[in-house]
């Protein structure tokens, strides 16, 4: 629920800053290592956005894959738990963040 709330709070803040009256679409990138189920995130967002400018927004969720690279030679690895052939270990890059990529909204230009 906290991830859905973070999305909602940030999109409402952006909408207020831009004098928007409705949010049409929200696109977020969620790292696979956060272990967030997209359907559950969507359900939570729908539940808490009722009665807000984001109530009818389409929530697009993209899953960002983590990259694992050897800390010694830089080779790409399949798992951070398996040592590299050179003896180095995997270092994880990405896949740990939730990023609000875009917010599409209807803006009231009359006040601008």
Give a description of the structure.
The chain has a domain at 2-65 and 94-107: hypothetical protein PF0899 fold (2-Layer Sandwich), CATH 3.30.2320.50. The protein contains two helices and six strands. α1 (2-17) packs across α2 (38-49). It has a three-stranded mixed sheet with strand order 2-1-6, covered by helices on one side. By secondary structure, it is of the alpha+beta class.
List key phrases describing it.
alpha+beta, single chain, hypothetical protein PF0899 fold, 6 strands, three-stranded mixed β-sheet
Quick synopsis:
With 112 residues, this protein is α+β, with helices and mostly antiparallel strands.
Give the topology, please.
Blueprint: H1 2-17, E1 20-31, H2 38-49, E2 58-64, E3 67-70, E4 76-77, E5 90-93, E6 98-107
Parallel strand pairs: 1-2
Antiparallel strand pairs: 1-6, 3-4, 3-5
Helix pairs in contact: 1-2
